[in-house]
Please model this.
Amino acid sequence: MAKKIYLADDEQDIREILTEFLSNAGYEVTAYKNGDTLFSAFQEKPCDLVILDIMMPGSDGLSICKKLRTISSVPIIILIIYELLIFMMISFKNKLLFFFRLQLSQLTGFVRLF
Model:
């Protein structure tokens, strides 16, 4: 059975690219326009991995990460464009395990870790 990934990004192009890329790699991907919708779906039916954009309208990726951490230890990947040092500080505060830059071609190998 394919691992289930929930993805939230307000940019439709990013959602489509990541959904196609990860689906072609054998994952079952459900994409959401915002983190609040993803969180509601997760409460009803948890997934194996969450991918969040850090900056979205409504609740941002870090807010959703904090909410998820209150109910689950699901692995979370946050998509980010900020400088690495800022992200490292945010990562430690929010109990994220990994923080590094990935190219799209490297994403499926990283996702396989979960």
The helical segments are 12-24, 35-44, 61-71, 84-93, 104-111. The longest strand covers residues 4-8. Strands lie at 4-8, 28-32, 49-53, 76-79.
